Amino acid sequence: ERLDLFLPKPRSARPPLLVFIHGGYWQSLDKGDFSYLAPLFLQAGIAFASLNYDLAPTVTIAEIVAQIRRAIPWLVRHAETYGFDGERIFVAGHSAGGHLAVMALITVAESIRGACSVSGVYELEPLRQSYHQDILSLDTDTVQTMSPTRLVPKQAGPLVLAVGGDETEEFLRQQEELAAAWRARGLPVRVVDLPGRHHFSAIDALGEVEHPLFAAVQGMIHGK
Asked: 47 - beta bridge partners?
């Protein structure tokens, strides 16, 4: 199973869909680990899907990105079968999943209306100098072609960015650089502050009804 799909009830019309992509530095975790985020979106009339992808070192980051790029158009094609609106698909992700969500917004923009990235990784070069390199085996071509900061598109839907205030300087810096690059191109980007959150608690804000991050994503999906 590559997909967990949850639909709001009752359904009088086809709801928009939020596709969530899990993190784990492209090498761990599972779609089921984040199903706890679904109920709040269902209550807001938004369908929720959680995706799996093959993990490193079995596959490369480029292959993982390719899997996500295939998954989104597949969802568009099967929207009528599953009962959601194929013209209102949004993506969200955490950590490595944030990277994949932004890569999806950049590379399959025609299928995605907007994206949210929480604690995302947007520049891969530092990972080549880290212990993750033993698993990820990054080369210069992958860094160039799979780093969102280097691939800012001419057009894209709205992007919501959030990072925990207690995360490392690298996560804070990378978000600041991506937001600046997005704004320099005149693309819509909104940054939501997550004070007091560390890397693993930052994503919880997406599932908290009174948190500004949930409000921002719900507003993006409903066009507010």
From this structure: 17
